[in-house]
């Protein structure tokens, strides 16, 4: 009988390189929300893939930025924690990218004591000559990494990377039950889906000033009934979120319900409310309440 393997595979990189798309491709479920805006991912999210003799815990982290306020500092703490418990590090870059937005994180990658897989993403947008130049550049920049050109969106070479991860995993019993898909509760995914729709539907500062809290999640055989509150920092933002005669908020609710029905596989009824929670992004007590500052 073969030994069981298990470990943490932590995905790091700058914003908008496709980390969430990659984790969803590995897991086969849409666990991480995805938009074209930077800072879509705020938390560290686990996606768990289990087989008869292995368990891989993928960890999607916020994109690396220089923090400007308390919320962003907490987001970078999630990235730091991803270095601390990694069995394998995935450093994800995209074509044309030249550096990580934090020199300390870059040094930790090139001096990593665990295997590093550097994934060069979005190669579907490249020609062969450019790709070869990029591979040569990153071989010099991160000499301790194995380099794999991929397209997370097109699922190109993702299976090759997954098989290499299985080879590199340490021997270990599973960390989670075999049927568990993530470490997060249902309410977390409701919050994230609503926040994704806000990122898609609103411009400028509005999406970054928003946090979502699900106050009620009642499930029976036929339907899930959800009540969620959208927190904003100012009264003017509340008006923008609601929109003329409530049309903007209604659109967010309809789009969120459609995605949640796919995610949970049953009918969903969702009610959305908007509240002003002044300066929550800089308030440590509020950040702890929303699952940040978990030190």
Rounded to the nearest angstrom, the distance between the terminal CA atoms is 40 Å
Give me the secondary-structure category.
alpha/beta
- The tally of structural domains comes to 2
CATH topology of the largest domain: Rossmann fold
CATH architecture of the largest domain: 3-Layer(aba) Sandwich
Outline the low-pLDDT stretches.
Answer: none
Largest sheet: 6 strands, mixed
The overall average pLDDT, rounded, is 85
CATH class of the largest domain: Alpha Beta
**Residue fraction in strands:** 15-25%
Strand order of the largest sheet: 2-3-1-4-5-6
Give an overview in words:
- The structure is a single chain.
- It contains 9 helices and 9 strands.
- Helix 6 (186-201) packs across helix 8.
- Strand 5 (116-121), helix 4 and strand 6 form a beta-alpha-beta unit.
- It has helices spanning 19-27, 70-84, 103-110, 128-141, 158-168, 186-201, 235-242, 247-264, 284-289, and strands at residues 5-12, 45-50, 54-60, 88-94, 116-121, 145-149, 211-219, 223-232, 267-276.
- Strands 2-3-1-4-5-6 form a 6-stranded mixed beta sheet, sandwiched between helices. It has a 3-stranded mixed beta sheet with strand order 7-8-9.
- The chain folds into 2 domains: 5-168, Rossmann fold (3-Layer(aba) Sandwich), CATH 3.40.50.300; 186-289, 2-Layer Sandwich (GMP Synthetase, Chain A, domain 3).
- It is of the alpha/beta class.
- The longest helix is centred in the C-terminal third of the chain and has 18 residues, at 247-264.
């Amino acid at each position: 009988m073969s030994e069981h393997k298990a470990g943490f595979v932590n995905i790091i990189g700058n914003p908008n390189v496709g980390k969430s798309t990659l984790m969803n491709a590995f897991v086969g479920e849409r666990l991480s929300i995805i938009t074209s805006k930077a800072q879509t991912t705020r938390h560290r999210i686990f996606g768990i893939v289990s087989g008869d003799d292995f368990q891989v815990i993928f960890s999607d982290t916020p994109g690396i930025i220089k923090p400007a306020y308390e919320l962003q500092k907490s987001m970078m703490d999630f990235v730091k924690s991803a270095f601390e418990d990694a069995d394998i590090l995935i450093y994800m870059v995209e074509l044309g990218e030249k550096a990580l937005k934090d020199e300390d994180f870059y040094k930790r990658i090139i001096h990593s004591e665990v295997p590093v897989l550097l994934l060069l993403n979005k190669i579907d947008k490249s020609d062969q000559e450019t790709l070869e130049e990029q591979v040569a550049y990153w071989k010099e920049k991160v000499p301790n990494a194995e380099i794999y050109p991929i397209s997370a969106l097109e699922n190109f070479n993702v299976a090759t990377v997954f098989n290499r991860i299985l080879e590199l995993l340490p021997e270990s019993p599973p960390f989670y039950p075999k049927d568990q898909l993530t470490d997060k509760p249902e309410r977390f995914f409701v919050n994230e889906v609503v926040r994704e729709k806000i990122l898609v539907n609103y411009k400028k500062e509005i999406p970054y000033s928003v946090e979502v809290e699900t106050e009620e999640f009642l499930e029976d055989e036929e339907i899930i009934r959800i009540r969620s509150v959208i927190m904003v920092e100012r009264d003017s933002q509340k008006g923008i979120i609601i929109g003329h005669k409530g049309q903007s908020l209604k659109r967010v609710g309809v789009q969120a319900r459609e995605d949640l029905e796919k995610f949970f596989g049953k009918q969903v009824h969702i009610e959305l409310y908007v509240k002003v929670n002044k300066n929550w992004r800089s308030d440590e007590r509020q950040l702890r309440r929303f699952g940040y500052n978990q030190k």
